[in-house]
Automatic annotation (TrEMBL):
InterPro entries: Nucleoside_phosphorylase_d, Nucleoside_phosphorylase_sf. It comes from the Bacteria. It comes from Kineosporia mesophila. This is Nucleosidase. Residues 113-177 form the Nucleoside phosphorylase domain.
Length: 193
């Protein structure tokens, strides 16, 4: 069973909004195509490559979604400048193979926010503290969108809203805050796109 869904049609004169789950997309204004990918880097990459396999590419990819705050005081909407994979040991792989796999992806936004993406929902204070040394926010899809855009030569923007504190309370707070977060993301789209 696939969770991906393309709403609307991709065209070269409009961005494609890329979102993990329908709950995050529930208040988006109409007019722009939306790709719901499912959760995680693999689902996101597969959904994007499938949607773009027809050869028609959008003007850009805009990844919208919720994220956990890794540092105290972070709230609201943030546009990401750098995205890393927190669950791929790029240093070890470089030592083993002499090749760089999963290098950080730099984005044109200059706000200084680093996002760590991985295929696990971070709800552990110890892991959170470890990740906070390298990033401000954590999600499960951003790296896949940025890397796919980079591979295809498309501009990308990653826009994340803090939904939880990426600690032991995250699994309880995300379901409570997701609707409010979806409204804020829809407001950002209406203002910025």
């Amino acid at each position: 069973m696939t969770t991906e869904q393309l709403i609307g049609s991709i065209s070269p004169d409009r961005p494609l909004l890329v979102i993990a789950v329908k709950e995050e997309a529930q208040f988006l204004p109409g007019g722009l195509p939306v790709l719901i990918t499912g959760i995680g880097k693999v689902h996101t990459t597969l959904a994007l490559m499938t949607a773009l396999a027809g050869g028609v590419h959008p003007s850009s990819l805009v990844n919208l979604g919720t994220a956990g705050a890794l540092r105290p005081g972070l709230s609201g909407v943030h546009e990401v400048s750098t995205v890393i994979q927190h669950d791929l040991d790029t240093d070890l792989l470089l030592r083993l193979t002499g090749e760089t796999y999963g290098a950080p992806v730099e984005l044109p936004h200059t706000g200084g926010v680093t996002l760590a993406s991985g295929d696990s929902f971070v709800a552990d204070g110890v892991l959170k503290d470890s990740l906070a040394a390298r990033a401000h926010l954590v999600d499960m899809e951003g790296y896949a969108v940025a890397a796919t855009a980079q591979r295809l030569g498309l501009p990308a923007r990653l826009v994340k809203i803090v939904s939880d504190d990426a600690d032991e309370g995250a699994t309880k707070s995300w379901p409570v805050t997701v609707a409010e977060c979806a409204r804020a993301l829809a407001d950002w789209v209406a203002r910025e796109l």
